[in-house]
């Protein structure tokens, strides 16, 4: 069907050449011509050229209009003569007739302009019906029309042949597939873009065609088609390979024009490791960002801080902006839907967000549709994650020796064991409780997207499904994502579009106690009732086939298999979120844009918590349950005016913004006990209410912003920004604050005295200063709150309200002031490129609880007191190590070093707040306790007795050598031991490619974190006792084993906490990925544009001195799942 249409259009075009003039010439197409006059401009000339008039008709009716240039020379018309009726042919004829011209219809969207004089000379054309007409018997078919007009073609005219279908892929020198590369047939309007996997498909007119490949930051290439139908293109990096676009907030600029500290990560590196949460992709890939997982639970989020912690009591999370939606949640996004994440780090970059930019800003841009035919992509993986890096526990025989034999030898009372336990011990058997409640867990992901469009309208739709089962039985996380987006040009002056997201997730984390129970339970116990030879010995109970007391004489530790059973314990969170952004943009003239956008988000979290009769918390009592329902809603309305212009060597951009933000959160909670039957949280009315509450929190923000970007000769750059915010949660007089910033940059590499050295391929210096605020001040913080309380009145309980805190109407913003120096440099045509940042940020007016005289009935009041300093260095290094022939190797290094220090506390000269572990001159999250000094040995028996200790006890440092271990205000032997904040972080990604194979892996190292080991203290808190199992690999002190590492099995240990402060530095090797892409010839045969298969191993190697569980975060094991390693296979297909 397509071929006759092309031939008819070609024949009419050739006929027009033959008939319109006596000499050969070339037909021009309106669609190829520059626009002479803006049809919507306020100034309307008295005359316009006929060519300009045809442009207006072409755009109005969406036509292709062909003509010979000489026919239109010297002809002008009055704009008022242009009529745009319902009939395009009639409208064209009316404007052409006065000049002896006529529009001949070729098909529904194509007209050719001919002179009436020429038509009269060649009447045969008058008798020809338009292509595609359906007249009577005399109507000429398109094929006959082609044949008739072909007879009129001279020898100089070459007949058109069938198009050639060309497919292929485009990669960088390092082997990275490049999405979004423009592919155009030279001299035509035929074009397409590479898909998400760097693949393209296009039709070329003939073998003489030339394909043009262009991509930001890379050298344009022109490739002749010849007799080939498949191409693998490698684009070389531009000598100035910094032309990529960076999103900086309310706009985009070239990376070469960036004056602040901005780092970006693209879709390839976001999805490389198949992260469940998009935040994970930032870890180790963005210098200055510290990303830490909150737990090992399936679906657990990651915590992120940028350039250290700036506040004590408020949130340190950065602002997330998703397609213009401020305050978005990265955890609700499907990583496969993200095109890029740009991280704004310094105050000059974040000041544009004013009071919301104190902790940095992450700007998320989701994938958009590309013009061209529909593209379908399918990405999926499936695999298993298995428990890994687990601490080794004692078996039954080791436990017996430690708690009985060794204790007897040390003169202590040995543990008591039942006959059932002794049978297990003597038979050489042992129960591995952790193994019983854990299993390898299936995980899978499926993502489908469809995108395409025309030169005016593009669209993208996607759907995703994720299933991540936990290793603890009956735990897991499921997420469903939908994404839809559309962008459209309405004429020459309007753009409209929308992006929407919908997410539903369900997280089941079980009992939150079963894993701790499994680590604590004696290995000498038995899991099943039938394993007991004499159940009556311990009055054991049969609960669904389980020995509830495990044959152990301890009624406080139930069988972990009972607690892990969802009929006994269940904690489930169901979340749903709908987000959307819609915009309309008006472009009245070149360089000027007026845009309004509305972003909104609504979400809810429904949390059900059920504890059955034989759960750890109930232990034989009737069930209890709790149900929480939380809703969150917000919207942002932005009105933005942008103008970009210049003259000579001067370029400038101006942005003005008015923004309104509103947020409303509601929460409801009901807790009951004594439920008559197992009903989860769906029959709360049948129990006895123990607690009920509800709350409403509202906040709003009104903002005005202005920004000016100036460039002289593309070498000297200036950015000035100012934003004023007014927040509802502060009192009158303090609601408004102004946040200014200024940034300078000098592209030294373009100076002759640098470029003549032939050393740098890029060199730019940057300097910036800015102020930002922290708007995370809790609503109603300035007001006095009430406490629901009660008291005894003559034997009768009386309930009422009492003041909870003292109001402070003078509460104002926390403010951060930051100075940043940066340098961007590159060598060897940017095969080595880097960015180095030095910064110093001071946060003042911290919101803390300040101590006040108790004369007014309160001991403290929320006030603006205190200061924090963060200063550090960041380095991002990209290298193309090998790019020769079929082999490629490139690496990315990111280094972060931040120093956090509390400069001032409470503003009254106070240097120490021991209760909150705040110390002037020390970092936040400091550990304050006695310093571990080894284990008291037998030779030190006399000295130990002076401190009321015995050999085998933990020894701590007597800081003042007074013979006492004290912890009073006057005399305190406790000191600051370290901090939970890291000294420095290093991330390294290596990517290799060889022909159709690719391989990559990720290395992450965190240094200097000191944790109070919650796993060691919380799970094995009575480590010197006999009740719980113990870690097998600890070097316990005994008389015959004078260890200086861990205390003795029978020693008293009043200072045992000192041993729990441990270095949590670790090295992780992860995300080992091996992929294979099918040859382009084969995928073309299968009607695909890309097909890649891969295998991946996540988290196989972790090296750390940290005892126990995962060193990345500090959480007691009973609140968590086990660490794991994942083994998956996946596929990326597009067609």
From TrEMBL:
One of its GO terms (cellular component) is cell outer membrane. Pfam families: CarbopepD_reg_2, Plug, TonB_dep_Rec_b-barrel. The keyword Membrane applies. Its main location: membrane. It is found in: Cell outer membrane. The keyword Membrane applies. Residues 1-28 form the signal peptide. Residues 124-143 are annotated as: Disordered. Residues 255-361 form the TonB-dependent receptor plug domain. It is a multi-pass membrane protein. Residues 566-1099 form the TonB-dependent receptor-like beta-barrel domain. Keywords: Cell outer membrane, Membrane, Receptor, Signal, TonB box, Transmembrane, Transmembrane beta strand, Transport. NCBIfam families: OMP_RagA_SusC (TIGR04056), SusC_RagA_signa (TIGR04057). Belongs to the TonB-dependent receptor family. This is TonB-dependent receptor P26.
């Amino acid at each position: 069907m397509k071929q006759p249409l092309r031939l008819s259009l070609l024949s009419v075009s050739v006929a027009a050449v033959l008939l319109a003039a006596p000499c050969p010439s070339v037909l021009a197409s309106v669609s190829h011509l520059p626009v002479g006059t803006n049809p919507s401009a306020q100034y309307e000339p008295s005359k316009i050229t006929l060519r300009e008039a045809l442009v207006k008709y072409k755009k109005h009716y969406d036509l292709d209009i062909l003509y010979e240039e000489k026919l239109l020379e010297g002809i002008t018309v009055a704009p008022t003569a242009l009529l745009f009726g319902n009939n395009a042919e009639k409208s064209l004829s009316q404007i052409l007739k006065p000049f002896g011209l006529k529009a001949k219809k070729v098909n529904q969207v194509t007209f050719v302009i001919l002179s009436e004089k020429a038509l009269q000379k060649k009447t045969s054309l008058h008798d020809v019906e338009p292509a595609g007409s359906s007249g009577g018997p005399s109507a000429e078919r398109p094929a006959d029309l082609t044949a008739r007009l072909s007879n009129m073609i001279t020898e100089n005219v070459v007949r058109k042949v069938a198009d050639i279908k060309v497919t292929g892929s485009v990669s960088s020198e390092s082997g990275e597939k490049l999405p979004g590369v423009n592919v155009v047939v030279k001299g035509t309007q035929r074009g397409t873009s590479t898909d998400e996997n760097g693949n393209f498909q296009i039709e070329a007119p003939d073998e003489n065609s030339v394909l043009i490949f262009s991509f930001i930051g890379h050298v344009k290439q022109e490739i002749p088609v010849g007799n080939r139908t498949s191409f693998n293109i490698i684009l070389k990096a531009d000598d100035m390979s910094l032309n990529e676009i960076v999103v900086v907030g309310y706009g985009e600029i070239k990376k070469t024009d960036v004056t602040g500290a901005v780092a970006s990560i693209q879709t390839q590196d976001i999805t490389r490791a198949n992260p469940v949460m998009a935040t994970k992709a930032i870890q180790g890939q963005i210098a200055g960002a510290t990303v830490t997982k909150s737990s090992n639970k399936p679906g657990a989020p990651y915590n992120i801080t940028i350039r250290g912690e700036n506040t004590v009591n408020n949130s340190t999370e950065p602002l997330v902006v998703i397609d213009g939606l401020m305050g978005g949640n990265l955890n609700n996004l499907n990583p496969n839907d993200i095109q890029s994440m740009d991280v704004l780090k310094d105050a000059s970059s974040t000041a544009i967000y004013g009071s919301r930019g104190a902790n940095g800003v992450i700007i998320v841009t989701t994938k958009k549709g590309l013009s061209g035919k529909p593209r379908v992509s399918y990405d999926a993986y499936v695999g298993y994650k298995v428990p890994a890096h687990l601490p080794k526990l004692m078996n039954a025989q080791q436990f017996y020796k430690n708690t009985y034999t060794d204790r007897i030898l040390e003169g202590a009372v040995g543990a008591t064991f039942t006959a059932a336990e002794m049978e297990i011990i003597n038979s050489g058997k042992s129960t591995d409780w952790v193994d019983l409640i854990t299993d390898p867990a299936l995980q899978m992901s499926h993502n489908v997207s469809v995108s395409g469009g025309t030169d005016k309208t593009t669209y993208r739709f996607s759907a995703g499904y994720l299933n991540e089962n936990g290793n603890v039985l009956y735990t897991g996380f499921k997420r469903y994502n939908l994404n839809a987006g559309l962008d459209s040009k309405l004429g020459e002056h309007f753009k409209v579009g929308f992006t929407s997201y919908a997410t539903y997730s369900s997280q089941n984390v079980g009992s939150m106690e079963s894993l701790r129970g499994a680590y604590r339970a004696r290995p000498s116990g038995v899991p099943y009732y039938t394993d007991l030879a004499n159940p009556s010995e311990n009055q054991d109970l049969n609960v669904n086939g389980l020995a509830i007391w495990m044959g152990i004489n301890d009624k406080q530790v139930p069988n972990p298999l009972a607690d892990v059973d969802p009929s006994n314990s269940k904690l489930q969170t169901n979340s749903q979120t709908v987000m959307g952004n819609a915009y309309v943009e008006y472009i009245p003239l070149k360089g000027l844009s007026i845009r309004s956008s509305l972003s909104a988000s609504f979400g809810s979290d429904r949390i059900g918590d059920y504890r059955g009769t034989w759960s750890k918390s109930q232990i034989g009592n009737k069930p209890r349950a709790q149900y929480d329902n939380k809703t969150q809603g917000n919207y942002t309305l932005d009105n933005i005016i942008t103008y970009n212009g210049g003259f000579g060597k001067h370029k400038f951009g101006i942005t003005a913004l008015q923004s309104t933000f509103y947020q409303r959160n509601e929460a409801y909670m009901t807790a009951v006990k004594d439920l008559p039957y197992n009903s989860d949280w769906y029959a709360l009315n049948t129990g006895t209410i123990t607690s009920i509450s509800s709350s409403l929190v509202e906040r709003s923000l009104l903002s005005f912003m202005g920004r000016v970007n100036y460039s002289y000769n593309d070498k000297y750059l200036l950015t000035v920004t100012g934003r004023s915010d007014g927040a509802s949660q502060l009192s009158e007089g303090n609601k408004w604050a102004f946040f200014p910033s200024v940034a300078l940059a000098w592209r030294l590499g373009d100076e002759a005295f640098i470029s003549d050295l032939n050393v740098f391929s890029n060199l730019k210096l940057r300097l910036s200063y800015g102020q930002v605020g922290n708007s995370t001040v809790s609503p109603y913080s300035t007001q006095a709150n009430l406490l629901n309380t009660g008291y005894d009145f003559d034997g009768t309980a009386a309930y009422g309200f009492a003041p909870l805190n003292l109001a402070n109407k003078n509460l104002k913003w926390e403010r951060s002031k930051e100075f940043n120096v940066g340098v961007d440099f590159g060598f060897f045509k940017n095969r080595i490129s880097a960015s180095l940042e030095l910064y110093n940020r001071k946060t003042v007016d911290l919101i803390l609880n300040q101590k006040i005289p108790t004369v007014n009935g309160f001991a403290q009041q929320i006030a603006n007191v205190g200061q924090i300093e963060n200063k550090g260095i960041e380095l991002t290094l990209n290298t193309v190590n090998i790019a020769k022939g079929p082999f490629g190797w490139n690496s990315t290094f990111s280094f972060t070093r931040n120093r956090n220090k509390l400069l001032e506390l409470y503003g009254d000269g106070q240097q120490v707040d021991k209760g909150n572990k705040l110390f002037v001159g020390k970092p936040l999250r400091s550990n304050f306790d006695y310093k571990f000094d080894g284990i008291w040995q037998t030779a030190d028996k006399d000295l130990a007795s002076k401190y009321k200790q015995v050999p085998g006890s933990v020894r701590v440092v007597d800081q003042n050598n007074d013979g006492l271990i004290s912890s009073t205000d006057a005399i305190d032997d406790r000191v600051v031991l370290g901090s939970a904040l890291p000294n420095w972080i290093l991330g390294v990604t290596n990517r290799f490619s060889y022909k159709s194979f690719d391989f990559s892996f990720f290395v992450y190292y965190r240094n200097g974190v000191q944790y109070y080991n919650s796993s060691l203290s919380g799970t094995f808190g009575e480590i010197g006792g006999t009740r719980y199992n113990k870690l097998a690999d600890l070097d316990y002190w005994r008389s015959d084993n004078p260890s200086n590492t861990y205390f003795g099995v029978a020693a008293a240990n009043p200072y045992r906490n000192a041993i729990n402060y441990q270095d949590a530095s670790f090295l992780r090797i992860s995300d080992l990925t091996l992929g294979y892409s099918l040859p382009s010839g084969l995928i073309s045969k299968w009607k695909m544009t890309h097909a890649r298969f891969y295998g991946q191993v996540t988290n196989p190697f972790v090296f750390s001195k940290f005892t126990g569980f995962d060193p990345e975060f500090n959480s007691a094991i009973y609140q968590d799942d086990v660490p794991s390693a994942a083994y998956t296979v996946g596929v990326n297909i597009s067609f």
